[in-house]
């Protein structure tokens, strides 16, 4: 039994988070994201919102401090208010000083093609797609 891990982090995701090395990227996406055409490894977080999963993952790993684009959110297409709500929620889970970079939709898809894994959530609202870049724990 493991303690202190949010129960929404299912075993396959925990394994992927452990397998990932520094510089590897994880996509947390909504149910409409073309995950299978972007990533070789796709997991499904059934019954889970992207925002909840983001908050559950962040205490478990470090962001890549050598890359300013270590948290990338898909840019909006006319729904800036919704994107702002997502970004505010994500920002609360980030370490002090970390900033979200907004990336144009098709550029985001291209970046997602290089991700280690995509996790499809049950999120159906716009603007929740995010890429996290894993770093190393500072000793």
From TrEMBL:
Q: Which InterPro entries match?
A: RbsD-like_sf, RbsD/FucU_mutarotase, RbsD_FucU
Keyword Ribonucleoprotein assigned: no
Write out the catalysed reaction. alpha-L-fucose = beta-L-fucose; beta-D-ribopyranose = beta-D-ribofuranose
Do you know which SUPFAM superfamilies this protein is assigned to?
A: RbsD-like
Which Pfam families does this chain map to? Answer: RbsD_FucU (PF05025)
Q: Which UniProt keywords apply?
A: Isomerase
Could you name the domain of life of the organism this protein comes from?
Bacteria
What's the name of the protein? L-fucose mutarotase
Q: Which organism is it from?
A: Pseudovibrio japonicus
